[in-house]
Write a structure and sequence with these properties.
This protein is an alpha+beta fold. The chain has 8 helices and 10 strands. It has helices at residues 25-40, 49-56, 60-72, 99-104, 124-130, 167-170, 177-185, 203-209, and strands at 76-79, 82-85, 90-93, 110-121, 137-147, 150-160, 189-200, 216-226, 231-240, 244-247. The chain has a 6-stranded antiparallel β-sheet. The longest helix has 16 residues, at 25-40. The mean pLDDT is 84.
Length: 256
């Protein structure tokens, strides 16, 4: 196969162009706009759909389709009535590090907005999954995740009231829950099971995060335990697919 000399390791092979060389018009426009994005840089204002259609000699709907894909990929974002070049995606490590740590590591300011904090008897499904006791009091805390005041996700945390009895009194919902557990209660995370899938947000979730319902989301399910192996939390976190990527460091095994 013929690889371009400047093929980036993380880019689609042959820039995604089939060997027969026939590509949809919108994809050709998308490739041209991608180069324009590199020239403009973060915050750069993209020409209008009409101007791009004239420049590349295609229909406006063709341009619109190309821009839709670049918006979904997080390379562009809407600003007022225009479209500008988006900044790089936030990289969140797949580890027991908190959301706060991950965002700060990239020079961004983390934040959260509390939607609800409720207390109720633990239902059977949650008890079975998180290793809790059916009927015992549990907290459910729902918060919108922020990065530099931009809404980027939605987090639901379930934790036994017995572990954090004063959650409704002495916890600042804009702060890190992990830091609160460690610094205030002396609880340390030991291990966790995590599962990632791609979903579309529900109408309610899209409204809270401020995105269109058709925007793909990255959904992470996590069940955490403390250093003694005791159940600690069950978390459901929805991240904007256009604003997040995830990283992990993997180690090999000799038994192949």
């Amino acid at each position: 196969m013929d690889y371009p000399n400047d093929q980036a390791p993380g880019a689609p092979v042959r820039s995604g162009i089939p060997e027969h060389g026939r590509i949809p018009k919108y994809y050709a426009v998308k490739a041209h706009v991608a180069l324009l994005i590199e020239e403009l840089g973060e915050g750069g204002l993209l020409p209008t759909e009409r101007d791009l259609a004239e420049k590349y000699e295609v229909a406006r709907e063709t341009v619109r389709q190309a821009l839709r894909e670049l918006l979904l990929e997080g390379r562009l974002r809407r600003q007022g009535r225009g479209t500008v070049v988006a900044g790089p995606k936030l990289e969140q490590p797949l580890s027991l590090a908190s959301y706060t740590e991950g965002v700060r590591r990239q020079g961004r300011t983390p934040g959260r907005t509390l939607i609800s904090l409720d207390r109720f008897p633990c239902p059977e499904a949650l008890a079975a999954e998180a290793g809790l006791t059916r009927g015992e009091p549990v907290w459910h805390m729902e918060r919108v995740l922020l990065a530099d005041d931009e809404r980027v996700g939605l987090e639901s945390t379930y934790v036994a009231v017995a572990r954090v009895p004063g959650l409704d009194r002495d916890f600042d919902p804009d702060s890190s829950f992990y830091a609160y557990l460690h610094e205030r209660l002396g609880i340390a995370f030991g291990d966790a099971d995590e599962r990632i899938e791609t979903v579309l947000a529900t109408p309610r979730e899209a409204l809270l995060i401020g995105t269109p319902p058709a925007l793909p989301m990255l959904l992470i399910h996590r069940v955490s335990r403390d250093t003694e192996g005791q159940p600690l939390e069950r978390v459901r976190t929805l991240y904007r697919g256009d604003r997040f990527s995830f990283t992990a460091h993997l180690r090999g095994h000799l038994d192949g």
